[in-house]
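tool_log.txt
---
The assistant was asked to compare two proteins side by side. It first ran the structure predictor on the initial sequence, then on the second. Raw inputs and outputs are pasted verbatim so the downstream comparison step can read them without reformatting.
(1)
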Amino acid sequence: MRKKQAAFTLVEAIVAMGILSLFFLMIYQSFYSILQTAKIGADATERVQRERIVLRTIEDALSGIVYYEQNQEHYAFVADTLDFNYPSISFVSRVPPDFIGNKEFGAQGLRRIEFVVEDAPGEGKVEGNGKTIKEIKDERALVMYQIPILQSIDATELEDPKRWVLGPGLDTFMVLFWSTKDLIWMPDWEETNSMPSRLKFEVAFKRPDGSAAQLVDLHKREVVVFSDTITQTMQN
């Protein structure tokens, strides 16, 4: 008698293919999970690094404030913080050697610096196959402007301020000023003929998913302003 050859039946082949598909699906899900975890970690690291740069930039700029009493129109400390959503502060500072923009300004370390909140337009709706894939809404950004105070002898006109976007996706930027007269924190500084002795600022950015920042995301800093004040007597 001839022996029957062993072979897979159709049902056995289907079951084997199903098991093999589940195996590959598990591998894909594990690999995708690893990639997502790595991406989330990279995004979080980038966000933390960006926040550190923003905080250090503001602190470094405030640490070198210079004020000439006899040239208040050029060295005045100007704050426009009544609009909670779009505050700005402007002052003259002698920045450190590693400050942002030193390559553009070279040896001109004395600059007027302005921190201002501006609108950063989004890209609108992104369409695909007749369906909306995502919608990028308008957001606010923390922007820094710099312009040298001391112009070159050969300069025929004033330079345009250089612009740096320090942080897109801004959620909160608030500045308070210490009043030595009333001993309280003031939301606005109207004394353009003098310098505040202390400033307090708060910065927070939106979360990676675009949601509003939480209390844990809020960074607070208090800076004592050791301004290099040049009195009229000293200048004379």
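(2)
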Amino acid sequence: MAWALVTLLNDIDCQIVRLDHKQPIDIPERKSAKIIDLFGDVSIKETWEKALAGIDIVFHFAAQTSVYAANENPVNDLNQNILPMVYLLETCRQQKIKPVILFSGTVTESGMPVYLPVDETHPDNPITIYDLHKLIAENYLKYYCRQSLVKGTILRLANVYGPGPKSSNSQRGILNLMVRKALQGEDLVLYGTGEYLRDYVYVQDVAMAFLNAAVNIDKLNGNHYVIGIGKGTTLAEAFNLVVEKTFARTGKKVKINSIKPPAELSLIEKRNFIADSRRFISATGWKTNYSLVQGIEAVIQSVLK
């Protein structure tokens, strides 16, 4: 996500500070934007004390993103998904600075949807440690917004995919991974019949949502918004699109092998989800530019470069 956002800002005369615990993956060509790289652990307060000087907008994308790792080690997940937000907010309060904070949430914080499409009025009922901690971090931000200590909003993201660095988490970026496998001539593995619905939203559309949120923060302040394209696609349909589009581009025809889901598969993987983003669209004018077909074709193009 950070890579896509920096790519969009690259042509604008601005200063971007990238804070990471390791060397960020660079964009193809640096243009108008001045990019400064800082290194530090965001779960340590001193990192934020050094990083926030002169910052107007914070895009908070840092997180531990594995549901299974969170269940295995809840304390570590707390340290990585709650403490950074607390330290960020407390640094703002203590230093008496008020940057705009835009936080990347997840639609799975709602748990198993009780109706579709899911909008902002849907009750939150997290069923994983990961989602519980993401929701707690959200609520910290909302509280500090209510106290007028900062301005901020949360974008709860559906299934994000698209060009960019390979995810370090094998449980994320599944659609990108399937494209890479198909392009290499490897068969794809699908759990069960792949009947569950997902709302796939292209990464550059999501990056634009964050920019729109920053510009319209006074309308969005203190709230969360559901971000997706508003269309459900089954896992099987998405995988078949990958097979079809990679075959059309390369002539390599791969198969989709259906296997029994592993016993340890989280219940959250068995949800159906479609986003209702009308409230965010109405407030910001945001729109998506990529259908799933167009997005998959763009991923294929980026991998083949």
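---
observation on (2): Residues 30 and 112 are 42 Å apart (CA to CA). Residues 129-146 form the longest helix (18 residues).
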